[in-house]
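Minutes, methods subgroup
Present: GH (chair), OT, SY

1. OT presented the first of two proteins processed in the latest run. Sequence and structure tokens recorded below as shown on screen.
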Amino acid sequence: MIKVPTTPEVSFVPEQPGVYLMRDASDTVIYVGKAVNLRRRLQSYFTAQPRGGAKVLAMISHITHFDFVVCRNELEALILEANFIKRLRPFYNILLKDDRDYPYIRVTLHELYPRAERAWRVEDDLERGARYFGPYLAGDIYRALESIRSIFPVRTCRRNLPRDIGKERPCLRYDMGLCEAPCQGYVTQQDYYAMTEELAAVLGGRRGGLRQRLREEIATAAERLDFEAAAAARDRLAALERLEERQTAVLDSERDMDALGLAVGLHTFCVQKLEVRAGRINAAATFFMDLGALEPDHPAAREFSGAEAGDDYRMTQTEVEQNCLRAFIAWHYPEAAVIPPEIAVPIKFDEELHAGLTELLNSLPVRRKVQLLRPQRGERRHVLDMAQRTAHEALQRHIGRGRRSGEYTVSPTTRAELGRLAGCPSVPGRIEAYDISNIGDDDIACGMAVFIGDSEERDLSRLFNLSDLSGQDDYTALRCALERRLARLDDPDFGARPDLILVDGGIGHVNAAREALAAAGENIPLGGMVKDSRHRTRGLVIMPESEPIELSEANPKIIELSGTENQELLRWLTQIQNAAHRVAGRYSGKLRRARNLRYRLEDIPGVGPKRRQILLENFPSLAALAAASEEEISAIPGLSKTVATEIYTYFHPEIRENNTEEKEEG
């Protein structure tokens, strides 16, 4: 490996195949690429006016020096590039998933007493024997876990077994028949482990043996009139069928394969991956990659990658598609939980590239030899066509999302730049933004807005009632809200762990948030969104810097400070800031309305604090209470007929007046 000095002089670089590693001032590798001609490739980066999209230009601005490795041929360079990317995970080798998290089911077979649980990403325990299945859509994974735990009574606790066997009583799941209580030694380690191995086989699509055994258990139990055992086996069989209902049978044979659909847009390409296990579509995932990740010396990628304009080589559409799939396969499969023996692709690779990719795949930990296929007909072609259609639809959604009112698509480059500024190790997938809202010293609340990718997920927003605090102290309120959030990082009601936390405010707000993170022992990247005197988003506070990182000047007309990417980043930060403000303001308003309702209720005779609380829990507003009939009010537990009459007449004074007139006449 040869290291080049800070001055980007490339005349001594050989015109041979190889791999290059771009480094920044801290000597960190920020990008890895391969080239058929190393000198030509590197010259394309360091011309007087390098051409390229925002991603490439942003990367070039951070390059201080580079390394390169000369290879014998392009195949060797392909494999070496993939190995470097897997090991170093450079910041600008970007692959983006669709705009949500896709969780996995993890079976911890590396433990003596394994568990089946949700996992948000494939961890290092894969190398120690853990099995991962998925990814699943968020709703599907809960239904799959419910079904699988109904079939196999595995533990869900985190007790350290066998160390803690017998130290505590079994949990409620044992009493419900949902766990065999290995924590008490009620099942041998060998039998329990064998059950979890079968569980993993079922998740992998091997269900025929279990289905047959359950049917035999039902028949045997019925013959000996053990109807309770027959019912239990029947319920397990029903759970197995529910699990299968969510997976479409697409192949007659129990074949394992991945089908990769591809759609190429102007700036982005999309890969749709369908996982077929035992003849059924087991899971699906959608990925987007910036076209700037293509080979810079290909003319089709020249706009995005800074290639020389004078190059007279013209790449065909097939070569563009080959390069897209090459980039995806080299990035994705070294990190995949499982690599099936067949990977179906929609295009034909040239012979040399096909050989290189096949060699790369088989150099990874695989159970069987991997083949790259391009099926022309039959069941496999049907699955591939399905992946192709889905890829094109996903790309259109990805592009069209920006045309909806109030929304737009944020480029992968902008997402990467925000992550870089905030110190994220990779492009942030889940961003949580916090804002404090109050009216004077009352109705203090904190709103949490959530962005997955570049899209706000309103169903994931959360509200923190901080009415127990007094006074206008945003720092204390923010610290308290974050402490409550950080205490529930593993709570599925809150979703995944955030990759980045943004707070609405400046240095003081970021310091308060940092104190909460330190108290919780967490090291989540953190930033503050600061505004100018006209309440417009102008910059980002990043710790430990003492000054905001300015993204534009005070004058809103001067936006091209470092290129158009800052304009988009400012616009996106404004959207994030507005979302957090909206969530907080909505809840603060709700608290204010509840307080006003409470004050009005204090005027009603016979309604003390206890009954006020009952009314607040059953009626959202004064209008709702005023519209209720006397019978509806008296039907609420804790309210007598007399009190209901007082409440009803309070909102209908004409009744009280009529009663008074009748008494006077009498």
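2. SY then presented the second protein from the same run.
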Amino acid sequence: ASKAVVGSESRVDKELKEIKKLSSPNGLVQFVSENNKTDIIARLKLVGRYRSNDVKVTLKLSPSFPFEPPHLSIPPGGIITYDGKLPLTRQSDWKSSTSLISIFTELCLYLSNADDNKTIKL
């Protein structure tokens, strides 16, 4: 394995430990994660007055991570629709030092601030 790959792998493991501790500031989003080295799968539990939904969010890491942003995917249907525009996953906004947790934090903040009765558009 090249050094870059080894480096990014330990970085991912380190970040996963942090990500597992993550929950949104107002407690509306609880976070669980799994990792199979290329995909980081987060289950965001949305807890609102009228709902309790599990949303599965996948961050796919490219072979050239961290020099390319991960691809964020959210399954269609359900409470979240995603148009691919979360700032930190855009090539132009991504730096190799950007942490994965910052993507999830941004997502959590967004979800926490969303109106209870609306479909959330990211």
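Chair's summary of item 2: The longest helix spans residues 3-20.
Next meeting: continue with the remaining queue.
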